[in-house]
Design goal:
With about 550 residues, the chain is of the alpha/beta class. It contains 15 helices and 23 strands. Helix 1 packs parallel to helix 11, helix 2 packs across helix 3 and helix 6 crosses helix 15.
């Protein structure tokens, strides 16, 4: 009962660019990658082989592998552009392999950054499979335009807590290069359908949604999701033998974050309500360096800037990181973020300085960091001549929906990949540039498992009837209430559940969030569906978890 998107004539994939190449040589967000044409769904329902909620690198990796094996894939995103995702906004790079590099060395770096909480099996999987998938999928198949040197070799850079230069990048907008290249490629695959402006309300589990009283007794399984068409204000039921959560992060529930607007914790909340186990949710990583300016949103200053030699200094121009870690400004992110926070609190600073101008030639800065240079220049900061004022902000959730080495959650038929999942790879603190690689690896692994066990997922689908969604809301959503509740949530999370936590602060956070959740759930029951209300409900639930 639906029509798929139709691809527009696409340019051929761009070859690798040399340093200083034009960033316009691959499509950006404003380029039309594809037209999504969705008609009304007959009966408010549709079926698909695999439903993927999300469109970032983990979702694309899974979709590509599944489609190559002949499975029909439906990807849904609440964004109005298919490439909009956490992946699209990633700057620094992705791990590949450096000279004299070896898997054991990468594993050691991951575990040291993870502060003893990394699952060794996950680190081994990433180190052994990651470089091969980068080469086979991103470089050869999708043809991401990674930077190369004068000889045509991939340009390797270093980031904090890495023992060798092993990061490849596309200037300082690597995520955009990967996401747009991936979308350009999969737009030509007929087995993949992408629905934009479709926000997931909840995962479908017979235990919760079937009218059959016997449905509560078997182990919990997922049979798809209820999806809200935010443009047409209609709700559809998408059923599938297998569902993959790839919804990204939760940064927007905090006052300051590097995450895009869509990172409202949707996947964490949906999985929690369905009964999935979530672990390590306390391990929220703060990026130590985001642009501090009264007119700027928290724009991320990539860790690659410090990898290329930038040094952190006080507003008076004195270095301070040597007091906190032997690696100085190249210490792990959590150490750097707490050090900056401590300096700000102790001395009353509003920010600290990140000095690149003193350690790198102006033209080299413009070539290596064109987006950072242009963005800072918009706010009157010339990073080739002066240091950048920076502060920490929420960046990445190291915890999430508990999965095994194949992306399987504790709910049958439900997989989770990317930032919404917790593979155990990151432990208590993510090593730089592992997140894109984790999404690529576990998206591929989940798809391989699904294909290898497809008969299991299709021969015994639970027989319990799943009704279509019935919206009982009668009131129009009040934007003033939604806005104020978001303000409350973000301040609670920032002040009580931020960089420094105490038992008393956490106790206050739980009390306040429980009250807020009760109020919003009541609001949700009697209000017409709206994507802002759905995000608020998810954000509060995720904050409480």
């Amino acid at each position: 009962g639906y029509e798929t998107w139709s691809a527009i004539e696409m340019p051929s994939p761009s070859p690798s660019r040399k340093n200083g190449g034009s960033p316009e040589r691959f499509p950006c967000s404003y380029d039309l990658l594809m037209v999504i044409e969705t008609n009304s769904f007959r009966g408010g329902a549709m079926d698909t082989d695999v439903l993927i909620i999300g469109t970032g690198i983990a979702a694309c990796s899974a979709a590509l592998e599944l489609a190559s094996k002949g499975h029909q894939v439906t990807m849904v995103t609440k964004a109005d552009q298919p490439e909009e995702s956490n992946t699209y906004h990633a700057q620094g790079g992705i791990i590949y392999k450096g000279e004299k590099d070896r898997p054991e060395l990468l594993i050691k770096d991951i575990q040291e950054a993870g502060a003893g909480a990394t699952w060794p099996t996950a680190a081994q999987i990433l180190a052994q499979e990651g470089p091969r998938l980068v080469k086979d999928i991103l470089i050869k198949k999708v043809q991401v335009p990674f930077n190369t040197d004068e000889k045509g070799n991939l340009d390797l850079t270093e980031e904090a807590a890495h023992s060798v230069r092993r990061i490849i990048h596309s200037d300082d907008f690597t995520g955009k290069a990967i996401e747009t290249s991936f979308m350009r490629y999969i737009s030509q695959i007929p087995q993949i359908n992408i629905l934009t402006n479709h926000m997931t309300i909840d995962l479908i589990t017979p235990e919760h949604h079937s009218s059959d009283p016997l449905a509560i007794y078997p182990p919990t399984s997922c049979l798809g999701a209820y999806i809200f068409n935010t443009k047409e204000k209609k709700t559809i039921k998408i059923t599938a033998p297998v569902t993959i959560l790839a919804t990204g992060g939760l940064g927007q529930i905090f006052l300051h974050t590097t995450n895009p607007n869509g990172a409202t914790g949707d996947g964490f909340a949906m999985a929690y309500r369905a009964g999935a186990r979530l672990i390590n949710m306390e391990y929220v990583q703060f990026h130590p360096t985001t642009l501090f300016h009264k007119d700027a949103k928290r724009f991320l200053i990539s860790e690659s800037v410090r990898g290329e030699g930038a040094i952190l200094k006080t507003p008076e121009g004195k270095t301070f990181m040597e007091k906190y870690h032997p690696l100085g400004s190249l210490a792990p992110r959590d150490v750097v973020a707490r050090a900056i926070h401590e300096e700000m609190v102790e001395h009353g600073y509003k920010y600290v300085l990140l000095d690149l101008a003193s350690y790198m030639e102006p033209e080299a800065i413009k070539q290596r960091f064109p987006m950072i240079y242009e963005t800072c220049l918009q706010f009157g900061i010339d990073i080739t001549k002066e240091p950048i004022p920076v502060v920490p902000a929420v960046h990445f959730s190291c915890g999430g929906v508990k999965v095994d080495e194949w992306g399987r959650t504790t709910i049958h038929r439900l997989f989770a990949v990317g930032e919404v999942s917790c593979t155990g790879l990151h432990g208590a603190n993510r090593l730089a540039s592992t997140s894109l690689l984790e999404g690529l690896v576990w998206g591929n692994r989940a798809a391989r498992w699904i294909h290898q066990n497809w008969e299991e997922y299709t021969k015994e689908i639970p027989p319990y009837p799943i009704p279509d969604w019935v919206d009982t809301g009668v009131e129009e959503p009040d934007p003033a209430l939604i806005k104020q509740d978001w303000i409350n949530l973000r301040h609670i999370m920032w002040n009580y559940v931020g960089l420094v936590r105490t038992k008393r602060r956490l106790k206050r956070a739980i009390t306040d969030l429980r009250h807020l959740l009760i109020e919003v759930e009541e609001f949700y029951k009697y209000t017409k569906l709206h994507h802002k209300l759905l995000e608020l409900r998810n954000g509060i639930q995720t904050g409480l978890v």
